[in-house]
Hints:
The structure holds 2 protein chains of 2 kinds. Chain A is an alpha+beta fold. Chain A has one domain (23-228). Chain A has 5 helices and 14 strands. Chain A has helices at residues 2-21, 115-118, 193-197, 200-204, 213-224, and strands at residues 24-35, 38-39, 44-48, 51-69, 72-76, 81-85, 93-99, 106-111, 142-152, 155-165, 175-180, 186-192, 207-208, 226-228. In chain A, strands 3, 4, 5, 6, 8, 9, 10, 11 and 13 form a 9-stranded mixed sheet that branches. In chain A, strands 1, 2, 7, 12 and 14 form a 5-stranded mixed sheet that branches. The longest helix of chain A has 20 residues, at 2-21. The radius of gyration of chain A is 21 Å and the shape is globular. Chain B is mainly α. Chains A and B meet through loops of A and helix 4, helix 5, helix 6 and helix 8 of B.
Amino acid sequence: MKRGLLILLVQLLIDTTNLFSQTNRLLTLEVLPVADEQTVHAEKCFSLKNDSICIELLKFYISGIQFFNKGIPVWSEIQSFHLIDIEKPQSCLVKINIPDQLVADELVFNLGIDSLTSVSGAFGADLDPTQGMYWTWQSGYINLKLEGLYKSKDALAKRLVYHLGGYQQNENALQTLRFEIKQLNSIKLNFDVIKFITSEVVKQHAHIMSPGREAIQLSATAKSCFNLVK
Amino acid sequence: MRYVKIISFLSIACILGSFVPKFDELFKVPVNWPQPKYAFERNPLDSSKIKLGRLLFYSGLLSRTNKISCASCHSPYASFAHTDHALSHGIDDKIGNRNAPALVNLAWSNSFMWDGAINHLDMQALFPITHPLEMDENIQRVIQKLQIHKPFPKLFYTAYNDSTITGERVLKCISQFMLSLVSAESKYDSVMRHSAEFTAQEKNGYRLFKLHCSSCHTEPLFTNYSFQNNGLPLDTMLKDLGRMKVTHDGNDSLKFKVPTLRNIEYTYPYMHDGRFKNLPQVLLHYVTGITKSSTLAAQLKNGIPLSPNERVDITAFLLCLSDKKFIFNPSNAYPKELLYDK
């Protein structure tokens, strides 16, 4: 009994010293929506072959940021929910507080909000319903919102409206992204808006505003539009 | 060694003890009731937040015209349902497409609306606030209005030690008020606690109720929270398929959430679209009106055989679920503070 207590005490001592000796540093994860190598701002227009697209709104969630090393999770951010919004350039610079000594070769995160959070009621900060990313006529977060005007030479202009989300079993649109990384100083990811706009799903559907098969397909497309800037 | 144990036991007890009383005062789980489903640890009840939630619930600022409040459709004197209106009407007197249900004992519920479209009480208020036929506002503008309207900034300060108003805080305070709406003081409850007795008629009604109704309207909350088709024919104008709209599953066609029957005397008209004006009509439906369809609940396949006298007895029992203390509880009513707001 006494010995057990002693071991416990020593353990506690080690733990607390560890807690204090461990220093952290900021890692900037830049997530930048781009089109033709230019940063996308609200109301900015881009030309595609014969057509053009003006993006009016683009917002999405990055959540559950984790680092892996040799396939093993080594660090995960607590309360990891970040809303990237082209109207707020600061939001594209996600600052994460990682341990100084962290060694990792893979970055993992979700595009969207997990189902547990989606059923747990009201949250603040980036998850606050005032961000306009919570559905009101049903429950759950919108993982990605893109709205814009697509003008084409040989057809009428059309409004594109995508509110992608869905957390229920057969409608789960959450995407998990993994990127091999070489360093942990600053990581830069691009979201290729042109690739998204010219995708097959977008060609077929000008509006997707509720969970379901199309929302899942387009979410998977969105996933493929991210790439790591080397 | 033993002292160590005693001391640690005592200190743990103290720590636990210091949390329990406050919660207990604000939210009592009635005797023999199950534990509530609401996750109070994410939104611990606090009297200043309940008060703030009550003011928000009664405030027109939540609507575009500043005239419609939650209470416009959920009146305290109707157990927070919308009496006399089959389909609730909201902004500019537009008519909605469903009947406003009673708001009682919501802490025990984990899906909201007739079809369960809302998965958490905190998120419920967003629906009416933004619905074009209800309050037709958006939460950003609601917050801008609250920031400049007495008494809200001060009340937020009291509740949170800073006067910042956020969507999360507004929603959680409204939830706190709704969570405080516990109704458990009806005659039925007194009988269960052996402090009152049913009349012979009520007693027979209770017996019949247990036989025919309680598989869905289960005691003590008088709902089992499942979604069922209770044989109502489809209203061809509204074409409301209920739960199927949420799950996209044909097996859920025409299923609606089993509503509580507590305070049923006050919540007329009845059913999701308010099609029945009174309880005798409801009972007649269960006896002769059941419409067959593939999703009809098995218990109702042949209707429920009840003689006219038995229907009267069941009705007498249903009236025992009225909780006058709850209906006339001044702390649920329109808060006078809002009058000075003008």
